[in-house]
Amino acid sequence: MLSYIMWDASPEIFTIPEIAGFGPFPVRWYGLLFAAGFLIGQQIMIYIFKKEGRTLEDIDSLTLYMVLSIVIGARVGHFLFYEPEVLFKNPLEVILPPYAGLASHGAVIGTVTGLWLYARSRRGTGQTFFWVTDRLTITFALGGAFIRFGNLMNSEIVGKPSDLPWAFIFKQNTEFLQIPRHPAQLYESISCFILTFVLIAIWNKYKAATPRGLMVGVFLVWVFTLRFLYEFLKENQEAFEANYALNMGQILSIPAVLLGLYFIIQSRRNPLERIS
What we know:
The protein is mainly alpha-helical. The protein has one domain. It is built from 8 helices and 4 strands. The chain has a two-stranded parallel sheet. It has a two-stranded antiparallel sheet with strand order 2-3. The N and C termini lie far apart (57 Å).
């Protein structure tokens, strides 16, 4: 009886053949799941806007802000935190394919910037920074679950060796020895799915009266506390991290957790006041 799981999933679903000199173009699970996060997230926000009587026409603008800020933030964050020499030598690589390398901490920074700009453009509509951000955390958690599952389909961000019965041997990953490892991507994906339902429950309880910053705080504390812990089970993404007691993901998670705790405390003290 096997005491591990043999994981040999192909990262590609199918390939679009070359047409008129362009291509071929592989269609990958990661890209499909990434796009699905945006599409389903948009439907969630449409439902929330309807329930709280907001203007549905704003959904398209909000989606555009989110797509651009998340992708740009995640790409710039990857190079800034993990490959700064590439960012400064060839900044165009941020926007050029293939898009190998997305940093969740960079996505958070990009998202905050995009939401701040969106809220400024909607002054007087009641869509303050925290009104929008609190509700979007539901879609962020769901998107995080999809992205981490995409990492699993890519056999990347693998865990450290493990003798647990659910350990995976990642056949498609030739960077590390073919031995059973923690499926760290799956741990994070499942955690994000659970968080999605926790955040839905919070919003469903309060709806328009949701304490300002509460859902943002819960999101930050949940995601980055677990991220800090899961990093102990994961192989380092870059060689330089081996020289530190904590890797880059853990170092960047600490301020995120502290900020989340601050938002939760403030939301309980002044539930109806805007935090800014």
